[in-house]
Amino acid sequence: TNIKSELLKRMSAGIEQPVSGQQLADEYGLSRTAIWKYVKELEQEGYEIGTVRKKGYYLIDSPDSLMPAAVQQYLQSQNYGQKIEYIEACPSTQLVAHVEAQNGAPDGMVIIANEQTAGKGRLSRPWSSAAGKGIWMSVITRPKLTPQQAPQMTLVAAVAIVRAIEDLTNLTPTIKWPNDILVKGRKLTGILTELQADPDRVKAIILGIGMNVNQELEDFPEEIRDIATSLYIEQGQSVKRAELTAKVLNHLETYVSLYVEKGFAPIKLLWESYADSIGKRVKISTLQDSYEATARGISEDGRLEVVLDDGTVRGIYSADIHIL
Ligand code: BTX
Question: Are residues 21 and 37 in the same domain?
Fold first, then answer.
């Protein structure tokens, strides 16, 4: 995989700078035939590869693949994404990630599926995860945090995802507390944060990230067509999922370390700069009740602060927010 992602990275320089199989073989202590086999594997995965006689290989076209090498060629991270388990289809990557985490998966290991047949949101709501159209992944993280600090990881992830979208598109997404990333008020991405912990120590935080990338409206189930959107719908142009995945992982690693080292304050600032509900009238629905208030900001520990009509301030740990 390592060599495949290196090959992809180098071959993307195009026909002007073909990659010499001999040189790569020498660098990695392999035979030229071994390199050639990797090239054949990539062709089988849908890559179109050209050869210049006596010079080497170059990339003509790449599929919209999420296979490990496709993602890893764009990584700049230490740990995040350095180990990827790719699954063609599964019920939910969260379930796989929980088992992997229990079995000792390293910090930053990623489970990616091309399709989820039972993708889930919060409170066991369904998450539509069409084949080949989005990024459905679970990132296993092992930050040094207390269980009380875990919910803020949702906000850390939201900032990382917005930055990645800004890197690759001209869109300006907003964040709706706690876990939605919206474009023009429609849901582009959802985050599901799950925890494995002792009473005083986080063992693993599993960040489930669902991003709508190349769907057309008809790819969504009818009941969410007026609330959901994708990057393709918003900008009329498709995005290579592998590159976006890598950008999310690069930013995520940076912001998680920032959070662990400097606390929530720097994340809070970034988060608030993307937030769309601050200062607005909102309806708050929890499992117990539902009421209206004005959103004021987020607290030092990531709760949403709202001002009730009688002037009292309340900090909310978890709820669904509807902007009125
Ligand atoms: P949520 O509870 O905030 O959002 C779920 C709600 O969003 C659904 O009830 C539905 O109305 C709407 N919805 C469903 N599918 C989509 C979609 N594709 N786009 C926009 N809106 C939708 C959000 O929960 C958290 C989602 C996390 C998904 C990831 S994917 C990888 C990982 N595996 C897994 O099973 N879940 C996570």
Answer: yes
Taking alpha carbons only, the member of 205, 208, 189, 187 closest to residue 105 is 205
Binding residues for biotin: 116, 187
Please state the atom number of ligand 1 nearest to the C-alpha of residue 137: 31
Name the domain count of the chain. Answer: 3
Q: Which residue from 65, 76, 62 is spatially nearest to 12, judged by alpha carbons?
A: 62
117 and 20 belong to one structural domain: no
The verdict on the CB of residue 230 being under 6 Å from ligand 1 is no
| Residues 73, 145 within the same domain | yes
Q: What is the pLDDT of residues 49-78, one digit of tens each?
A: 999 998 999 999 999 999 999 999 999 999
User: In the predicted model, what is the mean pLDDT of the chain?
Assistant: 95
Q: What is the CATH number of the domain that holds 319?
A: 2.30.30.100
* Structural domain boundaries, residue 297: 281-323
- Could you identify the atom of ligand 1 that is nearest to the CA of residue 113? 31
pTM assigned to the model: 0.95
Determine contact, residues 115/210, Cβ cutoff 8 Å: no
Q: Which H or E run contains 284?
A: strand 281-285
Q: Is 94 in the pocket of ligand 1 (CB under 6 A)?
A: yes
The three-class DSSP label of residue 255 is helix
Contact 92, 118 (CB under 8 A): yes
This complex has an ipTM of 0.99
How far apart CA 222 and CA 18 sit, in angstroms, is 47
Same structural domain, 131 and 208: yes
Say how far residue 6 (Cα) sits from the centre of its chain: 22
Looking at the fold, whether 11 and 146 belong to one and the same domain comes out as: no
Q: Which residues contact 236 (CB under 8 A, 6 or more apart)?
A: none
Q: Which of 135, 13, 168 is nearest to 65 (CA)?
A: 135
Residue positions forming the annotated binding site:
116, 187
Whose CA is closest to atom 11 on ligand 1? 224
- Tell me: do 178 and 311 sit in the same domain: no
